[in-house]
Each structure stands twice: as C-alpha cells, then as structure tokens.
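Postdoc handover notes: sequence design on the structure in folder B. Input tokens:
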C-alpha cells in the first residue's frame, strides 16, 4: 500500500491530465509491457507483409494502411511499411515474451513468427535494391538515407537499416549512408558505418534508398 501511494504521488501530474493509472502485480505488469510491444511489433510486421502483397498485385500499401487505419478497432499508428522494427524495446521484448512463453509451456506462435519475419526483412529489402539495380550491385555504390531505428530519433540501437547495409555489402556493394540526426562516432563504433554528408552522397551513388523518413 505504501508503494502504491508513493507511485500515485509521483505520477499525479499525469493523472490530473486524465492519463489512466493501473496498479497490478509484478508479473502482470511485466507481461503488460511485453504484450504491448509485441502487439505493436506485430502491426509493423503485418503491414510489411501487406506491402509485399501490394507490390505483387498492383495495390498501394499506403492507401491500404490509411484505409484500415480508419477503423477505430485497428487505428492508424504503426502501419508504416519499411525495413522492419528495431530499437531498444521491440526486439528485446518480443524475444523475452517468446522465451517466457516457451519456459511456461505456452508458446506464443504468432510472436515467434513476427520475430522470424522481421529478421528476414533485411534480406527482402536488399533483394529489392539488387533487383532495382538490374540484378547485381557488385561494384556499384548505393546511397542510404537514414540509419536510426525510426524517424526523428537519434537512437541507433538494433537498426534494421544497418542490417540492410551489411546485407548489401555482402553482395559486393559499396554503401554510403547519410543521417542528419545520428551521431557519427556512434554509427562507426556500433556498425562500422562512416556517415557521409548529404551534399557528397548523390554524386557518389548509382542508386539511393530512402530508408528512414526524418522530417
């Protein structure tokens, strides 16, 4: 009870703005976080697979996302196709939920499939670039715009764009990367990627990939 009172006081400013406060047991609280992030990761993975289908049948995935997002039961957030989810929470929490479920003998097969599809996304994205370049990127220079794990955020942790860069390099491609808000020495330390100034990138690149939509 004392802990509840202390936390209620800490979060009281939010409560005055009608933000809901929910008290649960510790195990329930942990699963709330894992389940919430796994569900959002599932939405991202879902729209990425719908994007693949749209390309095959000639539909516009952005219109599909807007259309289904108008349904209040679904909502419009986390329906942006791209190179997959990354960051500090979604990869960790989906793995933690899947592991916890296996240990408890209650496998979360949907979550496990989300993890598998997301891990394979970088190969699909690299394949799109290679096909666009005529079937081979050996000896070519591809420019990549954006490196952080999501738009308008400097966080480079678990960047799926870095995975894409590594995949393209494995096919003999020279990759130059520009990101206006990523910290250059972090990119080089974490992924061995030296960021290129914007005014130098177009002249170097045979093709450019818009990977992260910073405003």
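Designed sequence:
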């Amino acid at each position: 009870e004392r802990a509840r009172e202390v936390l209620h006081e800490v979060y009281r400013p939010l409560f005055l703005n009608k933000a809901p406060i929910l008290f649960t047991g510790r195990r329930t609280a942990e699963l709330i976080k894992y389940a919430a992030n796994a569900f959002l990761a599932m939405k991202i993975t879902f729209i990425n697979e719908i994007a693949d289908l749209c390309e095959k049948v000639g539909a516009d995935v952005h219109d599909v996302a807007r259309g289904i997002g108008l349904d209040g039961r679904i909502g419009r957030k986390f329906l942006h196709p791209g190179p997959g989810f990354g960051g500090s929470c979604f990869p960790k929490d989906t793995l933690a939920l899947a592991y916890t479920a296996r240990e408890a003998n209650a496998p979360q097969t949907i979550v496990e499939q989300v993890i598998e599809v997301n891990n394979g996304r970088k190969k699909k994205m690299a394949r799109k670039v290679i096909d666009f370049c005529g079937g081979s990127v050996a000896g070519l220079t591809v420019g990549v715009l954006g490196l952080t794990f999501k738009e308008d955020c400097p966080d480079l942790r678990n960047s799926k764009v870095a995975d894409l860069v590594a995949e393209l390099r494995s096919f003999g491609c020279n990759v130059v990367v520009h990101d206006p808000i990523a910290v250059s020495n972090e990119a080089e330390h974490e992924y061995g990627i030296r960021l290129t100034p914007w005014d130098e990138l177009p002249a170097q690149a045979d093709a450019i990939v818009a990977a992260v939509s910073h405003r």
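Context for whoever picks this up: Residues 4 and 180 are 43 Å apart (CA to CA). Don't rerun without checking with the PI first.
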